[in-house]
Amino acid sequence: MNYSFQKKLPTALVFLFSLSLFAGGIFWTDNAEAHKGHAGKVVTFVKKKVALKAMLPAGGKVYRRKQKLDSDQTAWANETFGVALSSKVMPFYVSKDRNTKKQIGSAIVYKFSYRHGNCEIAVGLDENNKVTTTAFVSANEKYLVDFEDTVGTGFLKSFDGMSVEDLVENAKKRSSADKATREFANALRDAAVTLVAFQQK
What total number of domains does the chain contain? Predict the structure, then answer.
């Protein structure tokens, strides 16, 4: 083999290897974006402000919080309800009596992943941590039929008055159901448990 060719070979191989990585990266990115795009546009069933107004008691003063669910709170949730929550920053809302400053309600808009898209639900709790009402807020258009034919969309009155324990049990009962029903029940449970976990100081 020619010496000059041998000397240039490593450089050529490095170039070809780099080119293949670059091309692979483009393909992977395009593929991921394509999957994300498959879910379609987001369809909103209930505006968040409308949902929150229906869930929080009239007459109270509403505060928007944005806090990190800390490790003590996630440990409490796991020990109390057997639910593993992520320790992360989340926005939620609390309503307090204007005179006593006692908390009289709370609510959260909770996002969860579904196939190649995301869905949002909203859950409200009263001063005794019973469900005031729930709502399926939004979903990607491709998956509308999945939820419309199973759990429904918009305000969902069937959960009104349930305790957090009831929602945990509801999720357990639906562990073998279709994916849409199962994921929705889990998200509803996690949202409610998150609200009560934030009450643990």
Answer: 2
